[in-house]
Amino acid sequence: MSQTEEFVLRMKGISKEYYGTKVLKGIDLEIRPGEVHGIVGENGAGKSTLMNILFGMTVIHSTGGYQGEIEIAGAKADIKSPFDAMKLGIGMVHQEFMLIPGYTITENIKLNRETTKDNPVSRVFGPKLKTLDMASMGRDARKALDHLEMGIDEWARVAGLPVGHMQFIEIAREIDKSNIKLLVFDEPTAVLAESEADNLLAAVRKLSASGIAILFITHRLHEIMAVCDGITVLRDGSLVAHKRREETTIEELARLMVGRSIGDMIRNPAKSLPDRNALEIRNLRVQMPGEAAKGVDLDVKDGEILGIGGLAGQGKIGIANGILGLYPAEGEVRFHGEPLPLNSTREALKRGLAFLSEDRRGVGLLLDMSVEMNIAATAVEIQGKFLRRFGPFSQIDGKAVRAHALETIKALDIRCTGPLQPVRRLSGGNQQKVCIAKALVLGPRLLFVSEPTRGIDIGAKRLVLETLVDLKERLGMTIVITSSELAELRSVCDRIAIVHDGRIAGILNPDDDDAEFGLMMAGDYGKR
Amino acid sequence: MSHDANPHGTAGTKGAVRRFFTNNLVTLVFLFIGIAGLRVSGLALPFFIVDIVDRVARNGFLVLALIIPVLAGLGLNFAIVLGAMAGQATIIFMTHWGIGGIWGILLCMAISFPIALALGVLTGRLLNKARGKEMITTLILGFFANGIYQLVFLILVGTLIPMKNETLVLSSGVGIRTTIDLTDGLKFGLDDLLRIPLPLFAILCGAAVLGSFPVRSVLRKRALAAREKTPLRDGVLALTGLFLAGWGIKNLVVESMYSFIRVPAGTFLVLGALCLFILFFTRTKLGQDMRTVGQDRHVAEVSGIDTDRIRITAMVMSTVLAAWGQIIFLQNLGTFSTYGSHEQVGMFAIAALLIGGASVAKATIGQAVVGLFLFHTMFIVSPLAGRALFGDAQLGEYFRSFVAYGIIGLSLALHSWKKHMQQKQGAGG
């Protein structure tokens, strides 16, 4: 049974480095024809890098390639471009649809693989001017759709179709390729409603029954258990386990997926929390593309560090952005008992909320301005601090700005050549500290921090997190940290709220069981 | 959040009519202004018809040259000015060599082809480096090319480039004269190939419009994807066809002054051929690739289409067509201003296309034809209307440029407004 030809795909010891950081460490993977194989892991576990290697994406080859071996159907394969992957019979159903809305379903299924026929002009000027054979394209499309039991008209336009249909059109496009051997589904159910997801799973089973091997990448563990034969768990770029479905449970997968990696980083000394709520959020809905909140209910206690965790795209980022008025929001928010008007950044800042954006370079900083002006800018604008007034005119008080900057640079240990250095030249960690300084100058009572350690090296991460804990300890500030890195939240937060599908799935303590976190993030909590 | 399953919930006749109005807002506004202007100017209909038929024949090719870059997602190609320069340069050669008539025209087209091709490749390459800013790039490129054109024909001719021709070169011996007369050369080279009386022309046009219905229904049945019903547009089209044919027959039977108007049918034949070519082209593999690139460059790239190459091809086609378009334009005009004729070619052609209801992202032959008629109506009517209203023809001249720039500004604004509203609706769910 274990001869090499038995496998459609065999990856051996795949490793990958990006600029000295190991993102994949010796991954093995074997898939047989007709097998459905699940890959699970948190954000950043290395799933997408692995798929990029399989598809020969340029991002891999422009950063020094990878180590390890790939065999397709028993033969060693060197996949240098997506085109190579296509020729080898590897197909992908993309998470974001690669469809053209203005085209019909047929045109989309046959995109750049159109059937053509000769005409007098093409005989003279070459095959590029052959006429499209729409009738035969339509027949092929019909066949592929029928295979998926889709009754939909192959001449309908894609624009306006439900997302579930769009996904099936992508699948139809892949199975229309005659040589397809392995089909990769990247988070296929992320955008689907429950019933659509069930249809998809049925289709996956059907495809595998016809001999196509399937790689199924998802966060939703119950789906893995529903369709997969074999399961691979990745965490932090390492292979954690290979499992057969029969020999594992959802709880075990959740535990394997989350694990615990930085237990010893920083400890936030636990204190008994007051029963006063600093912030009460009721039914908050935020229209942030890709991170929409759909009815969040959450209380933030005075003086705590609350973590908001969850997988990418579930809406955790939307909460802070909505409250601060950066994206349109509806619902009810009370800050220390007083209702907070939504959709007004100015009001939110005035009342003592502050926000460190996840988009540090875009929203958070004025990159070409000096450190001192960055620190002072928001305070000048919102509170009229650092200003000298002359009747109707006002002027920035350079001395006050400088004095404050020097003080802050020292207090937060910002490494820079001086208060006049442009922020662009600082390292990521120090830029983040400037952001913190900028928020602090407002004297906020509550600080929202989004992805504070994204794109920062380990040492700086520690500094940023320590600074946050310190703010809470010394100033009694309430802090809400939104982060994709669960380990980081567990090391500094008092409580952690997990967001799933735009709502709060539950609130856990940092030292709760790994499986609890895993299940909640996957949306399977209490579903068993 | 539950939302309406049917996004076009307000469909029905009322909805259809309203959609027709919002979709064709620009065209309808200028249609109204045109008709009102025609009334005010007191222009006699025969004169108007002679003029407009002439102008449409003259300008049609240039406007149609704009359609292909729009398909490929390059927006409105202000760089057809470069093609126009290539056309003009070859006309100067022809006049110098004293070759005229239809053979002169054909030779002109042949010689301008490689020049326009080279310019198109260069423009395409530049645009691949200026993604998302294609329109402004082509606009500025036109100004820049104008400088080079002037350098060559105003300074280099007679100094570096030896040229002895008293009618063409300025009396100082350096530089081409500012106005060139084509009367004994290329003038009417194409137009005079075949001229037919206006009523006959109207009958042929009407027949072509009516004949397009069975052809289109066959195409649709066999292949065409969009089986959307457009009863309003079809109705307008059918009425226009019937009216043209009826009017033609009436004037042919009852001898009228219209029979003395002789339409340059040769030029219209070339225009028709270009329309057919564009229709054919959109149904080829290359045309489909171009549309794909225009709709979504990222998706096109992922599916393996060489998007850069496709964009360059589109630019080359547009530039070559513009060169030929300018040759046709000038042979009809019979005289041209060496340093001015090409300058506003891009602006006017784009205004004509936009007034027909085209946008940066979508342009059809039908829009080009409607736009041509409307734009030139404004052009003919506005100075006269200005004189009638204000007693000052000069004011009408101002109104002309106001119309050209105003159309571009207004339709671009309306287009982005429409897009904004659609996005808003889309995000509402």
Write the layout of secondary structure elements.
The complex is a heterodimer of chains A (528) and B (429).
Chain A: E1 9-18, E2 21-31, E3 36-40, H1 47-54, H2 58-61, E4 67-72, E5 75-76, H3 82-87, E6 90-93, H4 105-109, E7 116-117, H5 120-125, E8 131-132, H6 134-147, H7 163-176, E9 182-186, H8 194-209, E10 213-217, H9 221-227, E11 230-235, E12 238-244, H10 250-258, E13 277-286, E14 293-301, E15 305-309, H11 316-323, E16 329-335, E17 338-339, H12 345-350, E18 353-356, H13 360-364, H14 371-383, E19 387-390, E20 393-396, H15 398-412, H16 428-440, E21 446-450, H17 458-475, E22 478-482, H18 486-492, E23 495-500, E24 503-508, H19 514-522
Parallel strand pairs in A: 3-10, 3-11, 6-9, 9-10, 15-22, 15-23, 18-21, 21-22
Antiparallel strand pairs in A: 1-2, 1-4, 4-5, 7-8, 11-12, 13-14, 13-16, 16-17, 19-20, 23-24
Helix pairs in contact in A: 6-7, 10-19, 14-15, 14-16, 16-17
Chain B: H1 13-23, H2 25-41, H3 45-64, H4 67-71, H5 80-97, H6 101-129, H7 134-156, E1 179-181, E2 195-197, H8 198-222, H9 231-253, E3 262-264, H10 265-282, H11 285-295, H12 297-302, H13 307-333, E4 335-337, H14 345-355, H15 365-390, H16 393-427
Antiparallel strand pairs in B: 1-4, 2-3
